[in-house]
Amino acid sequence: MRNQSAALREIDAARCVGRWSAVGPLAARLTRHESPGQVFSLIVASEAELEEHLAAVEWDPQEHWKDEGARHDAQDGARLTVRYPMVISGSGRLGAIEKQLRQAGRQTMTEEEEYQYKVVLAKVRFHAADFAQCKGAIESLPVTIGGESSLSPAYAKQLYMAQMVMRGIALEMDGDLAAAHAVYETAVREFRSKLSPQAAVVVPRGSEAGSGPGNHEELVNWPEEALYRRAMLSLALGDKATGLRQLESYICHMDGAIPATFRAFRRLRANRLYMEIVRQGLAADPAAGVPRELRSSVMASHRRHMALLKALYAFPKANEAHAEVLDAVDCAAQDWELVGAFSRPDSLRLLEIMYEAAHLTHNSPRVLRHLVHALIRFGDYHEASLALGTYRMLVERQLEGAKKAVSAAAREGTGARGALDTNNVESINSILRTAVVGARLFFVHLASAPECLSLVHFANGLIEDVDARDPKHEVMPEVPHAVKAQLALWKGAAHGLLAQRSRDPDNRADHHTAALQLLQQAAAQCPDLYDAHYYLALEQALGARDIAAATEAAKQAVALDPRRLEAWHLLALLSTARKDFAKAQQICDVAMRQSEWWDVYCEIEQGAQEADVAEQPTGGLGLGLGLGVPGAGDAAATTTTPATAGGRGTATAATPGSTESGMDFFDIAMTRLAIEGRLNGYNACLEAQPRLFALYGRVYGPAIGSADDIDTASSAMEGGGGCIDALAIGSLRAGRAGPVARRRLSSSQISGKRSLARSLARSVLPRHARYSSHGGDQLFAPSATDDALPQEARPASPGPRLERDSTGGGGPLDASDDGHKQAESPKRQRSMPHLRQPSASSSAATPETPAEAYFDGLVQIAGRAGSGSGAGAGAGGRAAAVAGMHGSKGVYYTAVLTRLGRQRAEAKRALCALWLSTAAAFAALQRPGEAAGATSEALAACPESPEALTMRGRLAVAQSKHMSALNEFHAAVSLEANNIRASVGLAHVEYLLGRRDVALGLLKNITRAHGWSDPEAWYWLGRLERELALQQAGPDGAADARGEAARAQTLARALEYMEYALDLECSQPVRPFSILRP
């Protein structure tokens, strides 16, 4: 008896885990121990033979379940395609096994033996597709699990699930879906009641061959089948809520299956159906907010979907597209928009999916298109430009292939449409819209006008080619006017940027004319396009000095989108150009009320006991300006904090809006501060400074306090620990991993080094030369041995100390406390496609400012920025440093442009500008010591700022320290050759030093190039021309006949220059229009 019990336990264990090759010998042992066990031994041996035969069957799960979960609309509602398990009808081996089982049925059996006999016999008939006989074998069996079996205490539960699933499938075949669903519900409930809480519901079984994925996957797993069919029948019966919950339960249970690739394709179909139903529910009520749990569930479903795709598909072969992956990418991009997943971590999850898809499709243009959008949203502009270059290269190849196919089809008389379909070409509409996004990327984020023009020219050429080949648009639809308008917009904006940078008057005039024509064309083609009116107004103000036309265009932009502050800011500057400072201040007040940062500004004012400023009346301003903005004069209507991007979710109190909108708000607040100084004097300007410093901490605190190593997509993915291979098991709605350990796909399905199309290349620099490439710490940090800008001797700050906002953490926002930390490595990176195929079009550099430069000497220049103590303090040393900057080429450096890096750089610039406005106020009040202290603070905040060095030079001029001023202006021009204030200051100092010929040459170059619209430059040029004319006369004022004509011409030029300077000064804004350029 003891040996029999041991044999039964071994048989039970072997049947549970699927070791069918061991069941036969164990059954033979049972027969030897006791002759009454012969019936049970025969049943067990027959079942083992059946399972081994099933495990050896080769089948294609993808072909079997290719349309699983497909929904069909019918008159009686939506119907689902739910395939039955794989059967092998016509197998002679199954007939032999059934014959062997019948021998056991002829003998006397106990109740338990009879139960197992009927279930195993039904399994044989089920797999032989004899469903009527299968139903007859089990219809008398109980539908509940009875007491514990003495023969098979554990495996009896699996037999119960088998007979219940077969019973339910038989009812499905009879069309009784409700009864079948009730059977599955009962089976799952009874089965779970007999399991411990820690036990897995689904345990893949089979032999060594049958337990694996692919063609030898287990034909049917009874608990898995019950869970799946229960959910699918709930959906088929119209109970969407219950079906969705049960489908989610099935997916979560299967996440814990080992191996993780078990039923991968069916799980893929179930997951796709789940996402479709959720997407349909969200689209039905777009105004409703998306709960955080549902957003996390949707994102987790897409990550699971990509992991399953990786388990099923390998690197594509030639002419293999993996359409399943492409569809998944489209759905992921759509769902991220639908649920409003716009945060940085959410964008990072989308990027992981896109990179995995790029690897599975070998950089399909369709995937790269979504990747470009995701990278821009994440803020890695450099990587986005590289992905865009690869997209353009692949699209051009596809278009060439399509042209050849269409030409061949035309010659053969077959049809152009079929030729295009077979070549799987990216749609023309998608290419053009991606070109529009790319043009905006290059212009707004990378400030690269040539790259913007190149992309727009490519898109316009494509439009012309389409119109030439298909003039009636029979094959390809006509390009929408909105797309053409956007292409004209960015082309015109790029020409405007080139006009501003051009040093040649003729070239500048050509660019300006082209910019105006294209921007006017864009505004005419699409009157609702905000950017067209805004950039048209900016170009009219910057390039043409047409204040009236610029004001009209800016009003139209404001009326189109009052929430965007750029047009408001331009409108305020245009009012200051007309010297209407009171109206400009009102415009700033109304504009600031449009922003979600207005409440923060009011809190700061209340904290400073200046609530009366927040209550300043603005009624009727919108009507008086003719803006056409609804409620522009109603403060109560404009102080409502809007929702965040996408209309889903609300902003928190600590961070009411994005940093980008906060930067625009801070800029317009700075303009209002300058207007305040013009209206109420510089003392009032100084009184308002503390509010600006507090606002600075709230706006730029998150960017300053963020980690240095997460500004690029690759570093964020590497450092965040995210892995698309790892599926967290647990509550999807909670968005967290459950108690079960994370499962990975098998090593044969994934790459050990995660070979994705992501940034992996880094330049290797000497350790002493590795400085932070953008933001955070000082870019050109002076060494401790520099004699300039002594930190210990820096004068006390005249302004308030800045405390970092709670969102940023840390201490005071003081550049002297930041230290001069050296980065581990420069952040120069390239994406995987560009490592394989470098593209010349991927550069984000401007013509005048190369993207790759050598910066050895700039540290010395910035370090000596404050050395104004003597005439020789910087003359020789700084000149040598400037000369050495171009002579030394020991460091190869390229800045990587990201949103976070741009925000950090903008934070340095904004803090520097804030200190410089304080210095200007002190200087206007004749308080040079405090002005010098504020300038030193500005240099400490941004040592490479030419504006701060220019201010220091102006202060030196006021104190008659001409050589010190010369050094400061030289350093400023070395840092930014196009800085007008530094160039004019340099010419002024040369004039004061008696070198009038040098000053005259500088001013002629300035007014011909970037200073053509600067009144101060023209004034000094006219003054020098007048003095030159006076020098042409004799000592007594007389002149000979030959010199009289030259003198008259010089005086005429001087008068013309002075009149032009006066005309420019009459239209000069309180801050230059160029601050609104990207």
Automatic annotation (TrEMBL):
Segments traversing the membrane: none
Highest taxon, organism lineage: Eukaryota
Coiled coil: none
Stated name of the protein: TPR-like protein
Ranges of biased composition (kind: Basic and acidic residues): 817-827
The keyword Membrane belongs to this UniProt entry's keyword annotation: no
Entries under SUPFAM superfamilies matching the protein: TPR-like (SSF48452)
Similarity annotation: Belongs to the YPP1 family.
Species the sequence originates in: Coemansia biformis
Functional summary from the UniProt entry: Involved in endocytosis.
Residue windows of the TPR repeats: 946-979
Region named Disordered: 634-656, 740-759, 769-848
Record keywords, A-Z: TPR repeat
Low complexity bias: start-end ranges: 838-848
Lineage: Eukaryota, Fungi, Fungi incertae sedis, Zoopagomycota, Kickxellomycotina
